[in-house]
Amino acid sequence: MMQGYVNENYEAMISVAVKNGGSLKSFDAVIDTGFTGFLSLPTAIIIELGLQWSYRDRATLGDGSETVFDVYNAEIVWNGQLREIEIDAAETEPLLGMALLRGYRLQVDTIEGGLVTVETLLNLG
């Protein structure tokens, strides 16, 4: 089980550690249930970690506009284990999406400082 907190803006936050070679960087990410990808990071963090570019993709945003973004390969520490995922470049705060939460239960105590828990439902490898 992983735990996080609800911030002052009532956003569910969880700590994520991204690994690339010998580099490991931890940060808090907003859990975004409207984001279908794994994780998004600002370009500055992607460059700092030296992540490997994979491809360019297109997405429709919540306001209906379309955007093109770069996708990178990385490993993260997730539920105590290394997991390979794709990271989308986006100039916002780090966002954790539903692809990463697949097979998990998300529970949020929606008060400032409330508990966020993510626990395994399935073993998806």
Core attributes:
6-stranded mixed barrel; 10 strands; globular; mainly beta; Cathepsin D, subunit A, domain 1
What are the segments in which pLDDT stays under 50 over at least 5 consecutive residues? none
The arrangement of helices and strands along the chain is EEEEHEEEEHEE
Q: What class would the helix/strand composition place it in?
A: mainly beta
In helices, the fraction of residues equals under 10%
Number of domains: 1
Output the radius of gyration: 14 Å
Secondary structure: number of strands: 10
CATH superfamily name?
Acid Proteases
Provide the spatial order of strands within the biggest beta sheet.
2-3-8-4-7-6
Name of the top-level CATH class: Mainly Beta
CATH architecture: Beta Barrel
N- to C-terminal distance:
16 Å
Shape type: globular
